[in-house]
Design goal:
Elements lengths: L2 H8 E2 L2 E2 L8 E5 L6 E5 L3 E3 L1 H5 L10 E3 L1 H13 L2
Antiparallel strand pairs: 1-2, 3-4, 5-6
């Protein structure tokens, strides 16, 4: 997908609008000891080109949050409640 194509998909009347590309669900499973967190439709991939509206350089790539990363974040968030 070229930069023009990516911008055309998410641009309307000169305003950039977010476009949902991925949906991930994280749930807390209290039936396990210790409590565990289930991630469905992961990992979370944030496309470099769509974030920065340019192709990645030689040392740049998509941002990927693994299932394990998401479970750790969930554990930290739920620990606050």
């Amino acid at each position: 997908m070229t930069r023009g194509r990516a911008a055309a998909i998410s641009q309307q009347n000169g305003v950039l609008n977010p476009v949902k590309r991925q949906s991930i669900t994280i749930t807390r499973d209290e039936t396990t000891n210790p409590v565990s967190f289930n991630v469905t439709r992961g990992p979370l991939v944030l496309g470099f080109r769509l974030l920065f509206l340019r192709p990645p350089g030689p040392q740049e790539r998509d941002f990927v949050l693994s299932i394990q990363d998401l479970q750790l974040y969930a554990e930290n968030v739920w620990a606050e409640y």
